[in-house]
């Protein structure tokens, strides 16, 4: 059946080959196996359940968290000639009737639903009668308390699966560490699913972080070099979004706002404009983004520190989904750290959940303060080893470091001598010589390491620990009360077999950082022709009320502008042009190409 899938990949979707890992996942799905797949954003998760839905009989039900995402994916599939629909609260009665008729007649191949809709008893009965044979769950990390975006309504999905007769279930997410993966598997499946971990690296993203000195000025400088590109700027507060958007617009950019405090109609209009048009900067809180599938976002910036390392990964992952170069910039400061810590402590979460959130904040700070390649640190969090990437600010510019072997040995010794069972604050109490109840109770005031770090402040020791974590010398077990443990590399440093450089306090900027270079798009195309093709795409999308990329993504237009095909037959070989799109748009685009 995989050969059939490859044929449909070309004829329907216009792709010559699978992306890495897609064929193995699709093969397992076609074999009827339950699947949990962890794939980096932009790796083609959607295709892994869309393509099998075209092979054989039965309905694939797709659980997706956002109405906007459902709408855009259905528009894209319809343009590919696939019979798909979304059943949600935004449908008018006539549209809902058409969907119910298609379900009754067995015409639909994919039906998109929100998890809230699935919890309704009438929906379960509807899907039973429609002959649902496969349940595909997008953004599956939402089911786990360990995930960064836990949603209670996702908890009902395991029971739904059983009510539908234990139908084949396939779950996808881009962000899941080991604890999250285990939790997803336990909550969604009755037996262990086939697990695929496709890697977390997004090599086309340039990763940059900078201490915040004047966020407004820093972001204006960043946007000035990227005028006319589509991008997202995340901000922690609603007022911050409004202020930044006003500043960007005054500087000549086209900026729109998205946050939960906006009128729903305004919010949806802004989101639709961003998805369907080129060159818009969306200034948004984290209310914007999950499931946003716009492939040609060229940059993502954070005006404030993200919530966690998973949230950071998910948010920057909205850039460069077409595989072309894209950029990220994250600004951070001590005020951000204090605010995030305060939000955790004042939340209504359980003590256990607060402990998890504190640990996740520390891992994000470790990334901010990393003394080596930023991508190495990010991937290490997800359990991957890598070489220096050459495409992050630290690889490009370097950092100021000192020989921190002695400092590292002090901390590593405190971890080792206490049995590798304690959290950061207890260990720091030992280093700075604090005789509190816990230290005295365990007799740790009698250790040789007690008080050996009095010359440094508690904040400096926290920074050093985060850097030890970032360089892979220690690891933290979140399921064991945040206990710190030595890795093999950490043991080598402790025993004097290796040295380690420590970065000076990254939260206190010492002058301006050099700017990260702008990512360059391929230049072997006719720029005037590309502008004409984009204009045509924009007009077609507006006429149909669909996102511009649902007509053709940027990569397709770039290839058309570079190759200048002279006939419909020549266009068949261009990325993203399948038979349905060739029939619908081929002649129209060919007129521009031949003019």
TrEMBL record:
* SUPFAM superfamilies per record: HRDC-like, P-loop containing nucleoside triphosphate hydrolases
Q: What is its EC number?
A: 5.6.2.4
Q: Which cofactor does it need?
A: Mg(2+); Zn(2+)
Q: Which residues form the Helicase C-terminal domain?
A: 215-364
PROSITE patterns assigned to the protein according to its UniProt record, in alphabetical order: HELICASE_ATP_BIND_1 (PS51192), HELICASE_CTER (PS51194), HRDC (PS50967), RHODANESE_3 (PS50206)
Gene Ontology molecular function: any one? ATP binding
Keywords annotated in UniProt: ATP-binding, DNA damage, DNA recombination, DNA repair, DNA-binding, Helicase, Hydrolase, Isomerase, Metal-binding, Nucleotide-binding, Zinc
Among InterPro entries, the record links this protein to: DEAD/DEAH_box_helicase_dom, DNA_helicase_ATP-dep_RecQ, DNA_helicase_ATP-dep_RecQ_bac, Helicase_ATP-bd, Helicase_C-like, HRDC-like_sf, HRDC_dom, HRDC_dom_sf
Q: Which reaction does it catalyse?
A: Couples ATP hydrolysis with the unwinding of duplex DNA by translocating in the 3'-5' direction
Where does the source fall among the domains of life? Answer: Bacteria
- Please state what class of enzyme this protein is: isomerase
GO-annotated cellular components: bacterial nucleoid; cytoplasm; replisome
Q: Which GO terms describe its biological process?
A: DNA recombination; DNA repair; DNA replication; SOS response
What PANTHER family does the database record attribute to this sequence?
ATP-DEPENDENT DNA HELICASE Q1 (PTHR13710:SF105), DNA HELICASE RECQ FAMILY MEMBER (PTHR13710)
The family assignment reads: Belongs to the helicase family. RecQ subfamily.
Recorded protein name is DNA helicase RecQ
> From which source organism is this entry?
Magnetospirillum aberrantis SpK
- Biological classification of the source: Bacteria, Pseudomonadati, Pseudomonadota, Alphaproteobacteria, Rhodospirillales
Task: Provide the gene name from the record.
Answer: recQ
């Amino acid at each position: 059946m995989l050969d059939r899938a490859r044929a449909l990949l070309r004829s329907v979707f216009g792709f010559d080959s699978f992306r890495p890992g897609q064929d193995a996942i699709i093969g397992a799905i076609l074999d009827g196996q339950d699947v949990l797949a962890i794939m980096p954003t932009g790796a083609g998760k959607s295709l892994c359940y869309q393509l099998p839905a075209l092979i054989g009989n039965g309905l694939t039900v797709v659980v997706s968290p956002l109405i906007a995402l459902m709408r855009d994916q259905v528009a894209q599939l319809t343009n590919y000639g696939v019979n798909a629909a979304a059943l949600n609260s935004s449908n008018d009665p006539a549209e809902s009737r058409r969907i119910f008729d298609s379900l009754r007649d067995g015409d639909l191949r994919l039906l998109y639903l929100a998890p809230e809709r699935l919890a309704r008893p009438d929906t379960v009965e509807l899907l039973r009668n429609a002959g649902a044979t496969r349940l595909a769950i997008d953004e599956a990390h939402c089911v786990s308390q360990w995930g960064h975006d836990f949603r209670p309504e996702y908890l009902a999905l395991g029971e739904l699966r059983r009510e539908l007769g234990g139908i084949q279930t396939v779950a996808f997410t881009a962000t899941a560490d080991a604890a999250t993966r285990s939790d997803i598997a336990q909550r969604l499946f009755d037996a262990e699913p086939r697990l695929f971990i496709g890697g977390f690296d997004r090599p086309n993203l340039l990763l940059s972080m900078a201490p915040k000195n004047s966020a407004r000025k820093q972001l204006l400088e960043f946007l000035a070099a990227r005028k006319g590109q589509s991008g997202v700027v995340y901000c922690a507060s609603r007022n911050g979004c409004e202020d930044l958007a006003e500043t960007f617009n005054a500087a000549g950019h086209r900026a729109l706002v998205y946050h939960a405090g906006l009128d729903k109609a305004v919010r949806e209009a802004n989101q639709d404009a961003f998805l369907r048009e080129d060159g818009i900067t969306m200034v948004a809180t984290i209310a914007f983004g999950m499931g946003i599938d716009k492939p040609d976002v060229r940059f993502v910036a954070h005006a404030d520190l993200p919530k966690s390392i998973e949230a950071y990964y998910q948010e920057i992952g909205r850039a460069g989904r077409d595989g072309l170069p894209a950029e990220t910039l994250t600004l951070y400061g001590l005020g951000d750290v204090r605010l995030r810590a305060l939000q955790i402590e004042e939340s209504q979460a359980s003590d256990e959940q607060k402990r998890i959130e504190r640990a996740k904040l520390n891992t994000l700070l470790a990334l901010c303060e990393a003394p080596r390649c930023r991508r190495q640190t990010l991937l290490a969090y997800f359990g991957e080893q890598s070489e220096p990437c050459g495409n992050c600010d630290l690889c490009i510019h370097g950092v100021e470091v000192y020989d921190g072997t002695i400092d590292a040995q002090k901390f590593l010794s405190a971890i080792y001598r206490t049995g590798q069972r304690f959290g950061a604050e207890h260990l720091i109490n030992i280093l700075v010589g604090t005789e509190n109840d816990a230290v005295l109770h365990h007799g740790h005031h009698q250790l040789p390491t007690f008080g050996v770090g009095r010359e440094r402040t508690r904040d400096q020791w926290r920074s050093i620990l985060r850097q030890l974590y970032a360089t892979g010398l220690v690891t933290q077990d979140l399921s064991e009360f945040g206990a710190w443990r030595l890795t093999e590399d950490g043991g080598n440093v402790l025993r004097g077999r290796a040295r380690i450089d420590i970065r000076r306090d990254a939260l206190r900027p010492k002058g301006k950082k050099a700017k990260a270079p702008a990512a360059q798009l391929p230049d072997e195309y006719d720029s005037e022709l590309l502008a004409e093709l984009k204009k045509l795409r924009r007009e077609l999308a507006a006429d149909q009320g669909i996102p511009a990329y649902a007509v053709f993504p940027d990569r397709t237009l770039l290839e058309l502008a570079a190759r200048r095909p002279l006939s419909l037959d020549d266009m068949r070989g261009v990325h993203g042009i399948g038979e349905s799109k060739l029939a619908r748009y081929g002649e129209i685009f060919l007129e521009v190409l031949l003019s």
